[in-house]
Structures are given as structure tokens and as C-alpha cells.
């Protein structure tokens, strides 16, 4: 955002006016945290809002402002904030103990739910985050195949560990970001996200590929969508070449469908990484998949077969609180229609936003699949009819082009009572009512008008 935009903007003035307590807290945060934040995606100019409590699809900030929330705990809260059964299960567990330094029955129940619901899950190992789950999936794949290289796709996010830190929002040439070893980057190939022929050529050019890792609905939870065809083609290619296919279902797991994207598309990977919804809104992750790959973590099988097992620790793996939240959330999802509701509400929201954009004469569009949505802010000024926008046809390069008004649009939505992620986009939960969606669409209308008034939105 330019300085001029910052100082002269009515949107930013309204934001500052509304969020004075957040401004105070943000002022203090700068001396505690780098950039005053604890997660890069919370970076907001001029400062981020501080939230105090949340319920269902809504949350309230430190100044008492109410927001319809589409951050959804970074996608973890398919059931919305503070779902009663999950809260009760965590409270009960809290009084029993938060960490036994021991095996406990709830972890069996949790692991069994993963086995029941996720098609590839013959065995499960819990971690504390999605980052860790992916890290372990890659290590398992390398150990299983005895090969070094990983193929990833441009823009696909897999956490912040060394193997996934580049080629996501920068360093698309595969060079390492600061602090990452050149050797790791040299053993990672970044494939284009929308050119399967090139992926095939990469496979033909390398006979030392251990694994291919991808987000199964496309980069950033489908911001750059891919389809079932690509998944099926990858499944065939990896099977032919003995390469481990890893789906990162940290976002899509238990969301796209009860069994994630793999169940929806009918493509079963060798390994899957999970987190977010898995742990019902508390920290947690898991790697699951083929028994003959996860046996690399097994003491007895390693001894019997004479191989060196892969070590795995983690103080909070399958901790009782996360297990309580996770089992409760997964049972609700397994036995109910939360995925279908969130998908339906997502589709409705996209339609309502596009209707508003069309009425406002905007050449933006709202798109996405399942319960995800993104705004295409059309930085290249293409001729777009929001009611006929086809994200598949426009291509990944256009969809990922940065817009200079994205941050201001997000602030304008906050001013009008809606919080989305900075993409700009978000996730709809099963707790989002029709009223929430209608409120959101009107907030989009107000935000577009505010931006237009400031000269930030070209009339279509
Ligand atoms: N993979 C994907 C697809 C994600 O969206 C995320 C988190 N946004 C991660 C991995 C990392 O998960 P975590 O934040 O739990 O480490």
C-alpha cells in the first residue's frame, strides 16, 4: 500500500477510528515480536485487529466490534467457533489432565477415526502441526524409496520447514530462502502448477525422485485450482515410477468431504498429511498412509526386517486436549453433514458476492471450490463478467497476479464487519448462516463503493 493511500484514505481513517484498542496493543507488540505478529499471514497495514472472543461464525475484537469470520482458525474451524460438544469435551479432558506422558485411550479413538475416514490411512502417526506432518511425510518417502528428490508445485503451501520454504510466494526458481541449505533446494524440483506435460518431463528427466507433494485442490486451498484429472494423471505417473504420492490435506482433510479431497476425487495417495480440522481447533497434525511406508517408524518391524527405523518424538503428539477436541469434531463430521453444509454455503456466498460485484459494475469476481472462496481483483484490467467468471479458463498466472488494492479491500471489509484472510479469500464453515452470507455480500458492496470513491477501483 502506498504512503499516499495510507494517509489520505477514508478507509484507513475509518479502520483506525474503529480499532483504537487494537492500535494500542499493536503498538506494544512491536517491541515483543518481529513485526509485532506471531504468524506472517496476520501482517496487516496499518496494524492488525486483536480479537477477544468468538462464537459460531462471528468474532469480536478488543474494541467490541463484531465480525463475520472467514479466517476460521486458519481453516481449522469447519464447525465454527466454540462448538458446544467440542468445548465440553475439552473441558472434561482439562479436568482429567492435559498431559500424561503416557499412551491414552483417546488417542486410539482419534487414530481410528482417521483410519475410518481417510481412504489412504492404513496407519497413522500424530504430530503437533501440519508443518511437522509434511516434514515427516517427506522423510518417510525418502527413506522408503532410497531416493533424494522431492517434486513440489509452484505456490503450493506445505508449512514453513526447510523443504517447503521456497517456491511458494517467492524463489520460484527453486533457490533457497535465507537459512535454508542449498543442498535441500538442490534436491527439490518446483513444477509449474498448471502444466502436467512439464511435470511429466520432470519425471522423465530425473530417476531419483522420492515423492511428489501437493495440495490436492491446488495452491493455497484452491486459489490456483487443479482438477481431478491432474490428480489421476499424477497417481498413474507416480505408480509407474515407484514415486510416493503425498497429498497435503492439512486444509482439505475433513472439509472437502468427510474423507477429504482424496475421497471426493477417488484418488488415493500413498501418504497424507493432516492438521487443522483433525484436531478440532486445537494444535495437532498427523501423517497417515500405507502400512508398508509407515512401518519405517515401527520398532518391531524394523528389528524383524533388519532396517534402521526413523525416529519420531514430539512432546505434544496426540496430547489429550487435542485428542478430545479432535475426536469430538471428527465424530460430528463423520456422523453429520458439516462438509456438505459448508460446501453449499461456500457456493452460495460466491454466487452472492458475484451478484453484488455485477450490480456494482465491477470487473472483479469471487471464485473457489467447496467451502473456499477467493476474490479475483483483476490487476490486469481484463474484461471480466463476475457472473460468468471461469477460474479454470483464466489460468494460474492471472489468478496469482498481485493486486495493489488487496490490502485496502481487506481493511474495507473489516470496517464493514467482515474478516477474510489476506489472499484475499477465506473459508466458509458449517456455522455460517444465510444471514451471515447476506451480511457479507453487502459488506463487499460497501467495500467496493469505498474503494471506488478513493479512486482505487476502475469502473468497468
Ligand atoms: N499445508 C497446508 C496446505 C496449509 O494450509 C498449512 C497451514 N496453513 C500447512 C500445511 C501448515 O500447517 P501448520 O500451520 O499446522 O504447520
Question: What features would you describe in this structure?
Answer:
This protein is α/β, with parallel strands linked by helices and 460 residues long. It has helices at 3-8, 10-18, 20-29, 84-96, 105-117, 130-145, 182-186, 196-205, 219-222, 228-241, 260-265, 291-294, 299-305, 320-335, 338-359, 391-394, 396-399, 406-415, 434-453; strands at 51-55, 58-61, 66-69, 123-127, 149-153, 188-191, 209-214, 224-225, 244-248, 271-275, 285-289, 365-367, 372-376, 418-419, 425-427. The strands form three sheets. The protein has a seven-stranded mixed β-sheet, with helices on both faces. Strands 1-2-3-14 form a four-stranded mixed β-sheet. The protein has a three-stranded antiparallel β-sheet with strand order 12-13-15, with helices on one face. A hairpin with a 2-residue loop joins strand 1 (51-55) and strand 2. Helix 4 packs antiparallel against helix 14 (320-335) and helix 18 (406-415) crosses helix 19 (434-453). The protein is globular, with a radius of gyration of 22 Å. The structure holds 4'-deoxy-4'-aminopyridoxal-5'-phosphate.
Taken as a percent bin, the fraction of beta residues is: 5-15%
The DSSP helix count reads: 19
Q: Structural class of the helices, strands and pairings?
A: alpha/beta
Name the overall outline: globular
Q: Can you give the helix content as a percent range?
A: 40-55%
- N-end to C-end Cα span: 22 Å
Summarize the main sheet. Answer: 7 strands, mixed
Q: What small-molecule ligands were found?
A: 4'-deoxy-4'-aminopyridoxal-5'-phosphate
Mean pLDDT: 96
- Radius of gyration, CA atoms, in whole angstroms: 22 Å
- Please give the order of strands in the largest beta sheet: 4-11-10-9-7-5-6
Instruction: Compute the number of strand runs.
Output: 15
Taking pLDDT < 50 over at least 5 consecutive residues as the criterion, the unreliable ranges are none
